[in-house]
Fold these 2 entries.
Entry 1:
Amino acid sequence: MGQVLVVTSGKGGVGKTTSAAALGAALAESGQNVVIIDFDVGLRNLDLVMGAERRVVFDLINVIQGQAKLPQALIRDKRQERLYLLPASQTRDKDALTERGVARVIDDLRATFDWVICDSPAGIERGAILAMQHADIAAIVTNPEISSVRDSDRIIGLLDAKTEKAKKGQQVVKHLLVARYDESRASSGDMLQIEDIVEILSIPLLGIIPESEQVLRASNLGSPITICNPESAPGRAYFSAAKRLNGEVIPITIPRERNRLFGRLLGGRAA
Amino acid sequence: MASNCTRFRLVGRSYVLFVLMPEPPLAVWLGELDVWARRSHGFFDRRPVLLDLSKLPLSKPELAALIADLKARNIPVVAVEGVDSQLLDFTLPPLIHGGRPGGESDADTVAGPAETQDRPCEPTSLLLDKPVRSGQSIVFTNGDVTVLGSISSGAEVIAGGSIHIYGTLRGRALAGVSGNADARIFCAKFDAELVAIDGLYATANDTTSYLCGRPVQAWRDQDSLQMREIVSSARRRV
């Protein structure tokens, strides 16, 4: 039986889809079978971030409504053979997702994959609730600024109240993934410090992803950063986060870009 | 801050109202009310009651008659809910809306005392061993609330008695809402959006920034809300 991981945040634009793709690819690199489901019906992005937008024939809604079989809708990544994508529909809205349909799809996927990653839409409405419904583990993506932290807090409350686990009196295992972290701005006080975020949200840290132009480059290339640039600082941060998801205990560090000694000497850190 | 007695002031205040919700047929419902009132003699004495008519559509004369019927039973109706505003004039109690159920609260509330009847012994305190997250509202009008974690920004705890917070108070804490002016609020670290005791409140803007991040207690002294850092005896001795 595979594990269901929801990547969620409440707030939009914090890096949910990027993180879902990067973590999925990193877990697949470690030899596990991974499928990522895009729950953002009507505003799908995961297909673009994974470079599969020209290969979508059937989607999650087609499977739920019985117009396609699950294997027909799954898209296998061209670079990483253990990584699959189940795209959302771009032409429908979130009402097309039914609770029973989602439950059936997740049960089927859980039986064949080691990891089922649900890429949640922003907000706290139906789509986000359905994405978290069956989760065993949650990665809450937060940026180091107060509105993102408060929205994450709200989402944690919902994970404790509205998921299947919560209804059974159990708990979803919750992890904090801080994305777009800029060390120099945090130390100058422009951004929240990691300790403050952890103190406010009081859940364990899964990783700190440094802000980097490499992430934007990777999405424009249509490739998860852990595939196209695994040695970059964010790439290494996602690999460590994936290891922690697999239960490895490794100390949390903030990876820095390599080969940038000159930049640092010339005042890059003071910027 | 010296307060001038002659100054006009508007003060917000929360009360717990009992709600009567008559159901058709009205005669049967009134009969049941009488049976119940006979068993709990004097229950409605000096207790304001709200009349919720969402289950019983009435015309204006019928409504006036019902209110007179209740008055004859010594049940004072202070407000009406769930009717068309045009139905009410100055001779009838005012229309009210936006009430929140006492003893239970909205959907994603973690805990709260729902049952108030048929319990041999009602709990008089509520312990929350998890943080109160943004968007959650904990309502406990029976007594004190103790929070082991923090109350997040955008979360609220509403208690009939005092509120004790062992973490950081970042959201709202409203103590003594059932009319208990002796209720207090204690927190290990103060960073509140709003604190209130028995309807008297202060927002973050009103409180001195000196208190921020410190252990604080808030209490009510006559008509003013007081806040002070809690200095532990251990520290005082040093």
Entry 2:
Amino acid sequence: MASPVNAIGFLLSILSCALFGNWLPFLSVVLFVFAPLPNSIFGRYTTNDVLEDAVSNVADIGRFLTSLILVSAFALPLMLLHVGTIEFFAAVMSISGGLLIYITMMTYSWLFTRERIEY
Amino acid sequence: MHDSVFVWNCRFPWLSTSAREQFSKYATYFSGFLFGVGWWLFIDGLVIAKNTPDFGIKIGFEDWVPGILATIGMIITNSIDMSLISDDNSFEYGGSRLASRVKLLLFIGIALIAGGIAGSFAILVIKYLGNETGKNVIYTGLTGVAQTILISISSFVLWLFNKSESSTEFNFVLQ
């Protein structure tokens, strides 16, 4: 069920660029794809140091960067819309397509991590 | 123990530990959201200024300085471990005076953030409010102020809700 949603997301984001002949909104989709990366890298930080706390601030850096990249993915099409480089529908399609891709990725990672914990 | 430092502990006794953990997590997300919105507003103002034909004011490096100062101040302020500030062994012979150094660093960070806000207001008043030659001038001036204010709120959120030595309370330390 999730892969048609992913395909619709990619279709929307490619259409938002191809219909208007302006490929700048695709940067937003790239940002949406890279958004979970800091969280997944910094979230796996473990240390062998016994003296250090189990809960570290390293995970917080990952959360901060993830939120920053997500905001950038929303803000880039809105900025292009405000300047007048792209149309309104291109911005809407780019954001909704990227959001669908992001939701699919988060759902998949959530399912796989839950399975790994439960075995 | 807290003689020279005013420590305000805001306890939330109705929150369980796991709920407090979740709250701290979402506060970090919210801080990143505010930081991103601030910088993107500033970039939007710059792009608008570049794309307005009758924009009478030249954008220079001085428009970037308050945001960069506020960001450096945010990094300095939030890199400080808050448990060090009450580590008051400086009266012992051979003490490391760590607490006073940490307080100096905290002062420098807060001064950088406040200087960023003051600088953005100064640039708004001197550069933008004086000569409104074209449209969108006020908008570009206001985005710089909004940027530094949002960065300072983001820093405040990150600082207030970070995990300190005791995870049962949120500490707000003022000098």
